[in-house]
Amino acid sequence: MNDSTIVTDSVKRFKWVGTRPIRPDGVPKVTGRALYGADLKLPGMLYGKILRSPHAHARIKSIDISAAEALPGVKSVMTANDLPQQKFDYIGPERVAVNFWHVTRNIMAREKALYEGHAIAAVAAISASIADHAASLIKVEYEVLPHVIDVDEAMADDAPLLFEDMITRGIDPAPTKPSNISKRLEFSMGDIEAGFQQADVVIEKAFKTAAVHQAYIEPHACVAKYEADGQCEIWSSSQGHFQMRALTAQIIGAKLGDLRVTPAEIGGGFGGKTVTYLEPIAATLSKKAGAPVRLQMTREDVFRASGPTSGASMWVKIGVKKDGTIVAADGIYKFQAGAFPGSPVMNGCLCAYAPYTIPNQRAVGFDVVSNRPKAAAYRAPGSPISAFAVESVLDMCAKAIGMDPLDLRHKNACRIGTPTLAGPKHAHAGYAETLEALMNHPAYKVKLGPNQGRGVASGYWFNGGGESSATLQVNADGTVLVATGSPDIGGSRASMAIMAAETLGIDYSQVRAIVADTGSIGYTHVTGGSRVTFATGTAVVNASKTVVQEMRKRAALIWGVEEDAVIWDDGVAKPANAGDNKTLSFREIAAKAAATGGPITASHGVNAGGQAPGFASQFCDVEVDPETGRVTILRFVAAQDVGRAIHPAYVEGQIQGGVVQGIGWALNEEYIYNAKGLLDNPGFLDYRCPVASDLPMIDAVMVEVPNPTHPYGAKGVGEVGICPPMAAIANAIAMATGKRMTELPMSPPRLLAALSD
To answer: Which CATH superfamily is domain 46-55+58-145+217-268+273-305 in?
Structure first.
């Protein structure tokens, strides 16, 4: 695919940062030798199977496991009664608060099954076929209840209640009547009414988006081995094995120190594998059976029981002056949380207008439960949903005042110091530069033909920092092992090795990066939030700097001089006195480690702050077939502020991957439920993800505005690329057809119906 790079700072050259070495995990993966969660087989291992609810909403009156327990070959059977009760309490910051009362009931239903596929019981047996048979012998008596799927219907006064005692949080005074609205949020600044009075043009529109799945290729899987002494080992494919350890320990009532979690390779996640589904069940089955247990989801299990992102119902109103100044923005964002509270509606509210300087703005959000699987993160969770609505209305505003849509965005682009609904002012630049990259792109001026249209849109994501650890070990031959606790999804092993090599001044080929288990490295937060290159990379660089100091110290011992008399220059120790030409290479110092103080190692932990947000701007050209409603994407150009691309090929891949998923979200992907609240398309045959033939060449334009708080200027790049595509495509369709599509997906039947009006 095409690519180009725009460097907006004074160019600083590096030896390894910015190069494209072969990924260290490439050969095992292309040869099929990499081990994923379902690949591990231990001696005496049992096979687990979960019995899942066939109903969208049903009270569990009784569960009879006696026939399953009596089946020869069955070694353990469990229900929710085998897990300790959890306290009802929201823990942590509001944006990411966790309630373990909800978490344990999502892992295994207690009082009610709240969605089709909700886990009810589980078995472990000596073979997969016996486990399947045993699960079918479990007798569950259900009282089927009315269900609700749509977010607007779930908010209605007469909607079936998932929780008879749920009182909406965020309203003062608190309501007295329970509802499916878990939480109301409101963020505002300025004077909304006065702002709209200043506008020459005011446009408002309602929008809906469907729930879509992350569609990772590898289903959830793990192996648990519980020992008689209370120690438990878990092998798991996840985006954060420390989080899996913490959640599993909480759910089964174990000590953190008694659990050791080893990360397997991961076949995709995109946020969906930051959630714990199987590990507590596998650990409990293993403990009861006294043998290792492997548990994995089928593809249908993944769709029916693991988190898609929220669907939403939204209303957005924006006012502009004739010169393009945006004076006010208002919006209501109603997000499906699924069966338990916790949709990313707060993110949607805070990201909605974040790329822009708007003096008067308000966002009201609702977190709404319904009989769907619990929503999980999906690449910039919440932001792509609100961006679809806001960026669509902005396009309508630009058309109404006769202004180029990129010019409108550039005129109102946030700058350093621009206030945000989140509270803090913008501290980093980068957004305007992405718009300028599109303005200067030759394809933006290409003339379009009949039934063709061009659409632009932008997106924002906070990006993350947080806790990460890294350890460096210098071997006697001068090679270096870099160990971190960040599961590698987007190429982080290569990026960690690049930054270590750059800091140490040695060849990239001399550095090996690995992902260590929870017993071998310090705590590290999940691979998510676009945080790893920034936060874990900072830990690696700091540990590398400690190694450099130690190498200088060892060189000073060898030469019999003070440490201050030794400098480090491109991987070589040299005397500070320029007239002295003696040197010691990295390898020579490493070889003498035993004689100069012993092993050369360094560990560093950070709670990284100062991360820069992600900005992305994109345009696409489409052609609409007026007879079928089919949309063909002719061209897609995606500009993104990447800080500094540590490994440009990986950065391009992240940008292109976000665009591809956004195309699927825009045109085809959706959860389809029937009248009984059952999912009709739980597989890739009917859940329509884009394939290669659906896609254009994607031009990834990397805009480099380095983050000064990172040693090499890195900014997170993995998420913001998915925020603009839905609106960009909708805007292009509007130009091509004159029809404004306000509901996702803009599938051929839906678009054809609009064209027929």
So the answer is: Aldehyde oxidase/xanthine dehydrogenase, a/b hammerhead (3.90.1170.50)
